[in-house]
Design brief:
Distance between the termini: 44 Å
CATH superfamily of one domain: MetI-like
Number of strands: 2
Strand content: under 5%
Low-confidence stretches: none
Helix content: over 70%
Mean pLDDT: 86
Structural class: mainly alpha
Shape: globular
CATH topology of one domain: MetI-like fold
């Protein structure tokens, strides 16, 4: 009887599993089905095995998009993680100033992704954009629609502005969760600000920073709406990341087989890298505690 009472909670979890099955597992199985067949029309399909996977893996355009994606995600993490921690350290700890700063920091996160791209298109236009016109007014030619470097700079500025607040908020939550006794002990021992950060604050934030790193990596590796609206993958293919290339294959060329195989490879790359990030961070944490 007691065992039955303990297992009753599964009935409350069951609807979640059903929703996940319809929203994730069933579509995933459909993608797997498309990736191993050549579909000509309703009821007309041929089993091709791993042919689409071989075709996708040998595609040089995919290789280029993959390296661009790695570069973009790497730059995003290198900038947003330290910047987010720095902002969190500078934010007020309590009072009305803390509440106001939290609201202001969170504002970029409330803007829809496609609107973010539109905002930055206007903001960086070389003729009327506040940023673009100001830079060109200083004699520096800036046009993200014509220059690959300018397009990358614009994308990085947009991404850092949009998502650094998430890292800052998570880091701030981690800082506020540290007991005051640690800081009092550090003050008594005469520890410097840097020593307090390195030996107390940073280790205690390891959990939230792990979440922030994984979230930012996965999101930056899946980015689509912002660069698509801002640059459309151009100029040329300079900002064609994996997600944009996948949409071009699936929607533009309507090659469902290669697109399905590409989707599965894309999914496995993200899953593998996220697992590696998590394992590395966990091992670093164990090394610090031991």
């Amino acid at each position: 009887m007691d065992k039955w009472k303990d297992n009753k909670a599964w009935f409350f979890v069951l609807p979640v599993f059903v929703i996940v099955a319809f929203s994730a597992i069933i579509p995933l199985m459909t993608v797997v089905n498309y990736s191993i067949q050549d579909i000509f029309g309703p009821g007309e399909r041929v089993f091709v095995g791993t042919e689409w996977f071989k075709e996708v893996l040998s595609d040089t355009r995919l290789h280029d998009a993959l390296w661009r994606q790695f570069l973009f995600s790497g730059l995003v993490l290198l900038i947003e993680m330290p910047l987010g921690i720095l902002i969190a350290l500078m934010m007020p700890k309590k009072g009305w100033a803390a509440s106001v700063s939290l609201v202001l920091i969170a504002l970029p996160l409330l803007i829809p992704w496609n609107v973010i791209g539109t905002i930055w298109i206007i903001f960086t236009r070389p003729d009327i954009g506040l940023f673009g016109a100001a830079v060109n007014g200083m004699g520096i030619g800036f046009d993200h629609t014509a220059s690959s470097l300018d397009a990358w700079i614009t994308l990085m500025l947009m991404e850092v502005w949009h998502w650094t607040p998430l890292v800052a908020l998570l880091a701030y939550a981690g800082l506020r969760a540290i007991p005051e006794a640690y800081f009092q002990a550090a003050k008594i021992d005469g520890a410097s600000t840097w020593a307090t950060f390195w030996y107390i604050q940073l280790p205690k934030m390891r959990g939230v920073l792990t979440i922030a790193l994984l979230l930012r990596f996965m999101d930056s590796f899946l980015i689509y709406a912002e660069p698509f609206v801002l640059t459309g993958g151009g100029p040329g293919n300079s900002t064609t990341f994996l997600s944009i290339y996948l949409v071009k294959v699936a929607v533009g060329q309507f090659d469902l087989g290669p697109a399905a195989a590409f989707s599965l490879i894309y999914f496995l790359i993200i899953l593998l890298l996220s697992w590696l990030f998590y394992q590395v961070l966990q091992n670093v944490g164990k090394g610090e505690t031991s």
